[in-house]
């Protein structure tokens, strides 16, 4: 009875970098730099300060900040108190932010002064909030709100050796909100056990790299995915566990990201395709050598055009697949050494490797993944048969906060339903056909918006593309393409795009019925709060046009 029963708590992730004496730094923009011993002290000070203010087990603490060392400290200190860290999506509308904060029952807000106008607008709609903590780069506290204190001053008065308690590893640790196609944002929560197992599983999966994505303890990590979204894909926890150097850029600005990459020697990042596109297009990136940089792309499909552009810039690019409800990692586009070795032609081998990089990849270790039909029975694993992707893993959310109906639908039949349509091939790779809500049903045939977007992105002069389904009197629905021309390139027109698609159809790459009749050149394409194509808004805008 005297044995220590090791609970899977977030605080355990701090033990390794301290025991192994990591000498790497935590960097915030060009403002702050300190080592792991200081990180642990600051986490203790934050825990102590929050406790003195009244944060206790069961409390909810929300953060409104850019990606920073402060956010990293909150990733640990808040859940280590037995409280819940609510990561506020600062890109939602004020009404949605107010709803999520109140729905989460947040009592304490850590607020960057950049968001003061927002707080003024929604403060009257936050009756549960008891205290505001000011996050100011210069330490100056604006007088117009009743602050409980300024972040650095509170830490200075806190105890660096604060003793964090132990408790049930199934205690809720984090909460964030995902926006769907209908209804209000849904709260997705994860326990300490979930987050520790996700960190270990993701790290073990990364260690299985074959021909790409080789990892070591010498990585320099910089997120290009907001820390409010899906735990920044879990990598701040992984990076801390491994003692990696970590670089937090603050507010995303493409040229600043390039400069931080150069200055700090960044080797690993993750982002949606839009962000990488912006980075590679930044003036500071034009003469940059990106050799040694591994970038995981998720959130939206990685097109072959962007993949080839990144490879040409010496970026080791590959896809990851997951969703908010899965913590998020489900699979990675790792190239197994034996997959393409029998392909003698170098170009054909390269194309097979590109196929793997842009696909959803191999299921993560311990992840059970099936592609099923409407009867929940697995379809053949032949690379052709399609169905919904359903999964089981040791770190998936158990449901949506205060929403039992949606939770039941999410887990119908004992499998988590992703809402994605996909197929599995003989080598074990998952290929996504489309989101169930985005797949276009035309005359009884399925048209993949992902495949069409990938094909159109390869046309010279195309910067961005989105394909949506719009109502059609004859076929029920038809694909429509929205194309943003690349600035500075030769003029682009719809006929050029259509001719390219017709050539692909003649070659059997796409179906002739998939070619859109309507191809519009536009100045921009709407994005969601995390940089994905906002196809819901696009369908609403163009279905009547």
Outline:
This protein is an alpha/beta fold and 545 residues long. The chain contains 16 helices and 25 strands.
Describe the structure.
The chain has 545 residues and is an alpha/beta fold. Among the domains are: 22-187, 3-Layer(aba) Sandwich (Rossmann fold); 440-542, GMP Synthetase, Chain A, domain 3. The chain contains 16 helices and 25 strands. The strands form six sheets. A seven-stranded mixed sheet has the order 7-6-5-3-4-8-9, sandwiched between helices. The chain has a five-stranded mixed sheet with strand order 12-13-14-15-16, with helices on both faces. Strands 2-1-11-10 form a four-stranded mixed sheet. Helix 10 (273-281) links the parallel strand 12 and strand 13. The longest helix has 18 residues, at 36-53.
Taking the alpha carbons of the first and last residues, their distance comes to: 71 Å
Identify low-pLDDT runs. Answer: none
| Portion in helices | 25-40%
CATH class of the domain at 22-187: Alpha Beta
User: Strand tally, please?
Assistant: 25
Strand order of the largest sheet: 7-6-5-3-4-8-9
Tally of contiguous helical segments = 16
- The backbone outline, from C-alpha atoms, is globular
What structural class results from the helix and strand content?
alpha/beta
Fourth CATH level, the homologous superfamily of the domain at 22-187: ANL, N-terminal domain
**Could you report the average pLDDT, rounded to the nearest whole number?**
92
CATH fold label of the domain at 22-187:
Rossmann fold
**Second rung of CATH, namely the architecture of the domain at 22-187:** 3-Layer(aba) Sandwich
What characterizes the major β-sheet? Answer: 7 strands, mixed
Estimate what percentage of residues fall within beta strands.
15-25%
Structural Rg: 24 Å
């Amino acid at each position: 009875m005297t044995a220590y029963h090791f609970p899977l708590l977030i605080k355990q992730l701090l033990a390794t970098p301290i025991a192994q004496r990591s000498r790497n730094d935590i960097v915030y923009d060009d403002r702050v730099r300190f080592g792991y011993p200081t990180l642990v002290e600051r986490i203790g000070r934050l825990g102590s300060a929050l406790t003195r203010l009244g944060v206790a087990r069961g409390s909810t603490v929300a953060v409104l900040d850019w990606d920073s060392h402060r956010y990293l400290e909150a990733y640990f200190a808040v859940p280590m108190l037995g409280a819940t860290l609510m990561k506020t999506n600062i890109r939602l509308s004020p009404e949605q932010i107010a709803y999520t904060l109140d729905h989460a029952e947040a009592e304490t807000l850590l607020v960057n002064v950049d968001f003061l106008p927002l707080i003024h607008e929604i403060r009257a709609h936050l009756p549960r909030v008891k205290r505001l903590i000011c996050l100011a780069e210069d330490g100056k506290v604006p007088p117009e709100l009743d602050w409980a204190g300024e972040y650095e001053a509170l830490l200075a008065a806190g105890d660096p050796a604060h003793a964090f308690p132990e408790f049930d590893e199934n205690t809720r640790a984090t909460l964030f909100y995902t926006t769907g196609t209908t209804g209000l944002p849904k709260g997705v929560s994860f326990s300490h056990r979930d987050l520790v197992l996700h960190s270990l599983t993701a790290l073990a999966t990364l260690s299985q790299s074959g021909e790409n994505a080789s990892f070591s303890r010498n990585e320099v990590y910089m997120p290009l995915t907001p820390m409010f979204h899906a735990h920044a894909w879990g990598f701040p926890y992984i990076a801390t566990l491994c003692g990696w150097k970590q670089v937090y850029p603050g507010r995303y600005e493409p040229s600043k990201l390039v400069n931080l990459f150069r200055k700090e020697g960044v080797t690993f990042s993750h982002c949606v395709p839009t962000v990488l596109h912006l980075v590679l297009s930044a003036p500071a990136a034009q003469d940059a050598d990106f050799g040694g940089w591994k970038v995981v792309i998720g959130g939206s499909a990685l097109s072959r055009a962007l993949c080839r552009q990144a490879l040409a810039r010496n970026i080791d690019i590959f896809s990851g697949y997951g969703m908010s409800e899965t913590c998020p990692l489900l699979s990675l586009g790792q190239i197994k050494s034996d997959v393409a070795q029998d392909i003698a032609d170098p170009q054909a081998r390269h194309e097979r490797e590109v196929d793997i990089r842009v696909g959803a990849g191999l299921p993560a270790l311990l992840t059970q993944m099936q592609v099923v039909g409407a009867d929940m029975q697995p379809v053949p694993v032949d690379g052709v048969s399609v169905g919904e992707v359903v999964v089981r893993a040791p770190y998936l959310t158990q449901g949506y906060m205060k929403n039992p109906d949606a939770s039941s639908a999410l887990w119908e039949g004992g499998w988590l339903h992703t809402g994605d349509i996909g197929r599995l091939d003989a080598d074990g790779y998952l290929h996504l056909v489309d989101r169930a809500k985005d797949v276009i049903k035309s005359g009884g045939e399925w048209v993949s918006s992902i495949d069409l977007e990938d094909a159109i992105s390869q046309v010279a002069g195309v910067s961005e593309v989105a394909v949506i389904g719009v109502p059609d009197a004859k076929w029920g629905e038809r694909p429509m393409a929205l194309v943003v021309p690349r600035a500075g390139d030769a003029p682009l027109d719809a006929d050029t795009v259509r001719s390219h698609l017709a050539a692909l159809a003649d070659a059997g790459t796409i179906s002739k019925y998939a070619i859109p009749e309507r191809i519009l050149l536009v100045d921009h394409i709407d994005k969601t709060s995390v940089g994905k194509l906002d196809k819901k808004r696009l369908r609403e805008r163009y279905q009547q046009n």
